[in-house]
Amino acid sequence: METLSTPLLYLPRYSTSLTVNNDHEHPVFLHLKRCTNSSQLKQIHAQMLRTGLLFDPYSASKLFAASALSPFSSLDYARKVFDEIPKPNLYTWNTLIRVYASSREPLQGVLIFLRMLHESPYYPNKFTFPFVIKAATETFSLCVGQALHGMVIKASLEADVFISNSLIHFYMSCGDLDSAYRVFMMVGEKDVVSWNSMITGLAQRGCAEKALQMFQNMEEQNVKPNDVTMVGVLSACTTKLDLEFGRWVHSYIERNGISVNLTLNNAILDMYTKCRSLEDAKSLFDMMEEKDIVTWTTMLDGYAKLGAYEEARQILDTMPRQDIAAWNALISGYEQNGMSKEALSIYHELQQSKIAKPDEITLVSTLSACAQLGALEVGDCIHAYIKELGIKLNCHLTTSLIDMYSKCGDIKKALEVFYSVEKRDVFVWSAMIAGLAMHGQGKAAIDLFSRMQETMIRPNSVTFTNVLCACSHAGLVKEGKTFFGMMEPVYGIAPELQHYSCMVDMLGRAGLLEEAVEFIEKMPMPPSDSVWGALLGACQIHGNVELAEQACSRLLELDPGNDGAYVLLSNVYAKSGKWEGVSRLRKHMRVTRLKKEQGCSRIEVNGVIHEFLAGDNCHPLSKEIYSKLDEIVVGLKSAGYVPNKSQLLQLIEEDDMQEHALNLHSEKLAIAFGLLYVEASQPIRIIKNLRVCGDCHSVAKLISKLYNREIILRDRYRFHHFSRGHCSCKDYW
DNA sequence: GTAGGGTTAG
Asked: Any idea where the DYW domain is (predicted)?
């Protein structure tokens, strides 16, 4: 520790008077200019205090600027210096606002500004406003910015292009595009930054077309674009996923001699990966002489999202520093491509290696993977980890937790999370409504939707999909029709295909097949495969062969490879004893080599996921499982169970064999495994990739009674809670 | 003596 008795610098002891007489060449300023570390700065500070130079506002401002802006100084130290200055001048106030505006506490910038208005004799000048507007931008404080805008006008400073540009950026960041545009229009001499602020603002708000239109206007006005302009334009291309236009922009940059720096190269690279051209991305990546963490992460993300996992992994292993963004890119790449097991394994690797610390984004992706897999125990661990680290739940995390708990079958925990948070955005509300819907709690879902209306949060298109889905699963036809009718007139949300599908599903399930058909006929757009699929599903429930045939052929016109359509139609035939229809379908599937998606059920025991396929004997405990299954069948038969073969795609002709095939359904294997290895106090949680068949549904009900166990089964569309011989779906599914 | 706009992971 250096002390003042061993100075690093020799500071001549001037006999200073308090006034400096405009002697700006005071030697202490020279030292200040040459100062390279904080110890030297402190010595100068001490010297100025001793000599009283600090009482001169101009000299003090010099010291303060050095304390606030030099790379080796800290904001805390600068603040201490500021507090010692008896009469800070306007320059000093401006500098303090400036450093706070770009610090981690931008709000302080606004507060200091207010203090300046009260305590100082100065009125803000053309330099003050850009700093304080930046502070308002960083805090997303619309009313503060609006007030500042008012002050700018009163001070007759609205013609200042720097201030106007700050205001444009501010309004864009707050999402007030109209105000940004108004300020933009008022700027007399728009410079390149004015245009850039509009272009990047629009691009970041997802208004790609408007951003590109702005770019065109800019060219027409003969304002020469620079590298920042092109980053904004590329961002718009990336939103549009328009590779051809992206390539044109790349060549435009080269043709117009726009200087390409690292950031611009990164933006071009991102455009190529998002527009799915790995070739273009790779060749740019290889050519780039300078790369930073963004370059590496962008390339890694491109590989991972497009399924080139080996290449992605190689980037991770060779990049100079594996920060958390890189791990997140790999995890989300797997998760978004439905490879949840791989996503979880990367997450585990990350935790064990401790190379980087998981952040909110890591947790959101990993929770989604848990939700897909139904990995409740892993999901629970992540929730515990969040609590342990004291991570505050933001809306993204809250949504992911609610989604994970709902999809893993623990609706109570999902509700706990929902009620534990103070802040809920439209995604949080929608996720909770979806959770209740998939658990068949339609009434609760609707109640929640009503409570949502009491808040300022406006429902979006997804919210309505979830509400209609809730009505459909719970048979709430009247309510569903009301909500559907309100969408456009009350909420200004035009119904989309998924809303029509939900309505057809709802009407169809309720047996209103004619009404469902009329509804389809009145659709303002061509019905999609999922609309016909909903109708076909309803036909299966209500055994309407003729309509099923029509729905199936319309569905196959749109999606010829839809194996589910054949299965559903086959079930309709089987249900009404039309075996010739069944074998015709079977033959057709054989000829076209279309295979029914294999049924697969999953169960998690002690954090390990066990997977079963129909008739599968790959499991190491296969023998025990099958003997348990035999025991169950004997027990069920003596309780009066008769196998229900109506929903079996008739691949096996003989009766005995049919029954055998039924017994081998994957969910039955998983239930047998659960009875053997899940603690008696715990529910048996199973996840199936397809819809549960009627026979398995009755069997699960009986088992829940005979063995006095709770079984929670997630199928492709919803949950079934079996308990004491009943199912939560009330056999309406 | 002070100023404004940009790229990656949800």
From this structure: 640-733
CB A184 within 8 A of CB A217: no
**What is the tens place of the pLDDT at every residue in A610-664?**
888 888 788 888 888 888 888 888 888 888 777 776 665 544 444 556 666 777 7
Question: Quick one: which of A552, A548, A598, A538 has its CA closest to A573?
Answer: A548
| Angle subtended at Cα A444 by Cα A440 and Cα A450, rounded to the nearest 5 degrees | 135
Q: Over 50: is that where the pLDDT of A50 sits? A: yes
Taking the CA atoms of residue A270, residue A273, residue A277 and residue A282 in that order, the dihedral angle to the nearest 10 degrees is 80
Q: Cα separation of A536 and A542, whole Å?
A: 10
What is A601-660 written as a DSSP string?
EEEEETTEEEEEETT---STTHHHHHHHHHHHHHHHHHTT-----TTS-----SHHHHHH
Angle among Cα A639, A642, A648 to the nearest 5 degrees reads 140
Q: Where in chain A is the domain with CATH 1.25.40.10?
A: 440-591
> Is beta strand A684-688 parallel, antiparallel or unpaired with respect to A711-714?
parallel
pLDDT at A17: 44
Asked if strand B contacts A193 at the CB level, meaning under 7 A, the answer is yes
Half-sphere exposure of A72 (CA within 13 A, CB side): 10
**Spatial CB neighbours of A506, under 8 Å, sequence gap ≥ 6:** A468, A471, A472, A476, A477, A480
Distance of C1' in B2 from CA in A18, Å? 25
Selection from A320, A331, A317, A333 nearest residue A294 by Cα: A320
pLDDT surpassing 50 at residue A8: no
Strand B proximal to A126 Cβ, under 7 A: yes
> Which positions ≥6 away from A496 have C-beta within 8 Å?
A461
Among A724, A705, A701, residue whose Cα is nearest residue A713: A701
Q: Residue A537: pLDDT band by 50, 70, 90 thresholds? A: confident
Residue A227 scores a pLDDT above 90: yes
* Residue of A38, A30, A35 whose CA lies nearest to A12: A30
Q: Which of A247, A221, A218 is nearest to A234 (CA)?
A: A247
Looking at the C1' of nucleotide B10, which residue has the nearest alpha carbon?
Answer: A361
CA of A18 to C1' of B5 (A): 43
Q: Which nucleotides of B are covered by protein (CB under 7 A)?
A: 1-10
Look at the domain A440-591 and name its fold: 1.25.40
Of all nucleotides, the one whose C1′ comes closest to residue A61's CA is: B1
Using pLDDT thresholds of 50, 70 and 90, give the confidence band for residue A503: very high
Please give the pLDDT value at position A658: 63
Write the pLDDT tens digit of every residue in A74-91.
Answer: 899 999 999 999 999 999
| List of residues 6+ apart from A483 with CB closer than 8 A | A449, A464, A467, A468, A471
Q: Which helix (H) or strand (E) holds A245?
A: helix A243-255
8 A C-beta contact, residue A120 and residue A104: no
**Rounded distance between C-alpha atoms, residue A293 and residue A300, angstroms:** 10
> A6 phi and psi, to 5 degrees?
-120, 75
Give the H/E segment covering residue A672. Answer: helix A666-677
Q: From CA A604, how far away is CA A375, in angstroms rounded?
A: 6
**What number of H helices and E strands is found in chain A?**
38, 6
Question: Can you say whether the dihedral through the CA atoms of A66, A72, A77, A78 is positive or negative?
Answer: positive
